[in-house]
Amino acid sequence: MRLLILGASGDQGAAQVQAALAAGHSVKAACRRPPLLEHATSMEALEWVSVDYRQPTTLAPAMQGVNVVLANFPSSSFNDGPTLVRAAMATGVAAHAAGVALIVFNTSLPVMETPRGFAAHDVRLQMREALEQSGVPVISLQPVVFMDNLLRGWAFPHIADRNRFVYPHEANLEVCWICQDDLAALMLAAAARPDLAGRHIAVGGPAPIRGTDVAAALTQASGREIRFESQSVEAFCLAMEALMQSRAPEERSRMIRELGNIYRWYNTSAERPFYVDMTPVLRELPVRLTSFAEWSARQHWRRE
Ligand SMILES: NC(=O)c1ccc[n+]([C@@H]2O[C@H](COP(=O)([O-])OP(=O)(O)OC[C@H]3O[C@@H](n4cnc5c(N)ncnc54)[C@H](OP(=O)(O)O)[C@@H]3O)[C@@H](O)[C@H]2O)c1
C-alpha cells in the first residue's frame, strides 16, 4: 500500500510509520515541519511531507498517489474544536479529490455514537462525521488508554523517583490498556479491510486490569516494589493545571474543567469507556496483542 500517515511526528503516528515500513508499505509521513531533508530521504520507502490543517491547500499534494490515509489529529482537549472539525472536513475533501480508497481514523480516545457533553469526546465524534461525509470510505478505530502514557511526564517521574504508579483511575476501575504499537498494527490491519468501511471499532489491550495489576507488572519489570496510588480526579486536574501555566487563565480553567468532566466519566460511567472485549475485533483484525506485563518488561523504568 501507499499510505499517507497524518500526525506522523506524534507518538501515535510515529508508531504507525514504523509498523508500516516494517510491513513493507510505502509511506508518506505528514506533519507541519517535517524532519530535515537528509533524514527524510534516508529511507526510500519513506517520504516526509508538510501538511498544516490550518492551511487546507497543503493536503492535496500530500494525498497524491495515496491508497489509504491513516488519520491522526492533535488533541481535542487542548485545541479549538471547530478548527479540528474543519481539519477533518478538509482531510476528507482532499482525500476524495485525490481518489483515496480508504481513511482509517484514529480517534485517539473512546468515542460513543452520540455526544456525551465533553468537548474532547464530542469534537472527535464531529470529526468522525465530517470524515464520513466526505464520500471516502472510513473505518474508525477508537482506542482506550495507552500503556505508553506511563512513559510521559505526568506518570513516569512518580514511577522512576518514588516507586509509585500514580494515575487518576479508581481502585476498582478495569482498564484495557493498549500499547501504541498494537494500535498501529490494528490500523494497518484495518487499512487492508476496505469492506469494514463505516464501522466504529473500539480497540483495547488483551485484558482488563486494575491499578494494582499495573503496579504488580511494573514491580516485576523494574525489580523494585511499585505501589498503585489512585489519584483523585481533582488532584490530577491540579497537577495538569500546573503544566499549563503558559496558557491564559480562562483557557486554562476551561481545559481543566473539561479534563475533570471526562475523567469522571471514564471512572464512573456505566458504559465503561475503558473496557473493550477484543475477541470479536481480533477475528476481523487479526493482531497479536501485547499484555501490560510484556510491554512493561520492554521499558526502562529508571532515569538514565
Ligand atoms: N488514549 C490515550 O491514552 C491518549 C494518550 C495521549 C493522547 N491521547 C489523545 O491523542 C490525541 C493526540 O495527542 P497529542 O496531541 O498529544 O499528539 P501528538 O503526539 O502531539 O501528535 C499530534 C500530531 O499532530 C500533528 N499536528 C499538530 N498540529 C497540526 C496541524 N495544524 N497540521 C498538521 N498536523 C498537525 C503534530 O505534528 P507537528 O506538531 O510536528 O506538526 C503531531 O504529529 C489527543 O486527542 C489526545 O487527547 C490519548
Keywords:
alpha/beta; single chain; 9 strands; 41% helix; binds NADP nicotinamide-adenine-dinucleotide phosphate; 304 residues; 12 helices; two-stranded parallel sheet; Rossmann fold; seven-stranded parallel beta sheet
Structure description:
This protein is of the alpha/beta class. The protein has a domain at 2-145 and 179-204 and 274-290: NAD(P)-binding Rossmann-like Domain (Rossmann fold). Helices cover 41% and strands 14% of the residues. The protein has 12 helices and 9 strands. The strands form 2 sheets. It has a 7-stranded parallel sheet, with helices on both faces. A two-stranded parallel ribbon has the order 7-9. Helix 4 links the parallel strand 4 and strand 5. The protein is globular. The chain starts with a strand and ends in a 7-residue tail after the last helix. The mean pLDDT is 95. NADP nicotinamide-adenine-dinucleotide phosphate (NAP) is lined by residues 7-11, 13, 31-33, 51-54, 72, 74-77, 108-109, 143, 145-146, 149.
Indicate the topology.
Layout: E1 2-6, H1 11-22, E2 26-31, H2 37-40, E3 46-50, H3 59-63, E4 68-71, H4 81-97, E5 102-106, H5 119-132, E6 138-143, H6 156-162, E7 164-167, H7 180-191, E8 200-203, H8 211-222, E9 227-230, H9 233-242, H10 249-268, H11 279-284, H12 292-297
Parallel strand pairs: 1-2, 1-4, 2-3, 4-5, 5-6, 6-8, 7-9
Helix pairs in contact: 1-7, 4-5, 9-10
Bound molecules: NADP nicotinamide-adenine-dinucleotide phosphate (NAP).
NADP nicotinamide-adenine-dinucleotide phosphate binds next to helix 1.
